[in-house]
Amino acid sequence: GERSDESDIQRQQSIPKEVAEEVEVPTYIIFGCDLLQTDDKGGIAAVVSSLDGTLGRWHSFVALQPKGITHITSTTEAVKDGLMAYFRRNRGVKPDRIVFFRSSVSDGDVEGVKALEYVMARRACFELDPEYVPPMTWVACRKAHGTRLLPSTSAGGAAALDRKGNTVPGVLVDSGITLPHSFHFYLNSHSGIQGTNRPTHYQVLIDEIGFGGDGMQFFAYWLCYLFQRCTRSVSLCPAVYYAALAIARIQILMNADPNKWSQSESSSDDAGRRGGKEGQEGKKGRESRGTKKEGKAMPQPPVHRDIVTKMFYI
Hints:
- The chain is of the alpha+beta class.
- The chain has helices spanning 2-14, 17-20, 75-89, 110-128, 212-223, 238-256, 267-272, 276-289, and strands at residues 28-37, 43-50, 58-65, 97-102, 136-142, 171-173, 184-188, 200-207.
- It is globular and about 55 Å long.
């Protein structure tokens, strides 16, 4: 309100002009990763990445992977694809910081996914530029749990109720029901429409950026107000939400006509066959990865190459 505006003005006035001109705001990119295991066609992976600081435009990467694999095998290609899209969109600017939100990770697979996908993301940065080593923060988030947050019945507890009797958006629990040796918390970021709200469980696996407890909790909460399908906050970080929507759309297309799958290795390979500058960049990316392939190439999800990198799921 007025108080925050006044504090911003006072803060700006207290900083000398010559100092303010030299202050550089660090750029960042957010990745949202999700993976769906199907019984008959292996897994479907989707990785979306932000294209600018407004978090209003997102790049998409979709790929299929072998059955039974809990980590996204195309993480290196997905990260390179997203970073190159950010690089082109922002006229040659590289993001200073990288934040990953990873969904569909069970408690038993957390450490394995953390070790494998983090290394593959680092490899992607190295292959683009050996001197490019941005700090990364890796967050696992999931709603497949049995924890529910209920409003307090003590004095003043009624203020935390919404019209459906659920806890109001912004209620967070990071003690009591959480492990003391792990950086995780439960966040109720939405107002329930029907039934009892299910909070999202966020577990920070790597925090090289240095958000800290309060920083990550505020960051995850305010991101939930940027989902493009509605004008209210949602229950899950939009980056992961978009990745889940991409998977759902791919699954519909696969079930409609599975014979239309192409035999390319991934969506980045398909993008590399485009003409012009973009095709040359995709070709260079494939050459830098080498020609070694593990097993048979997975089929490409049935999405046209002109929209596979767009928000085709909205």
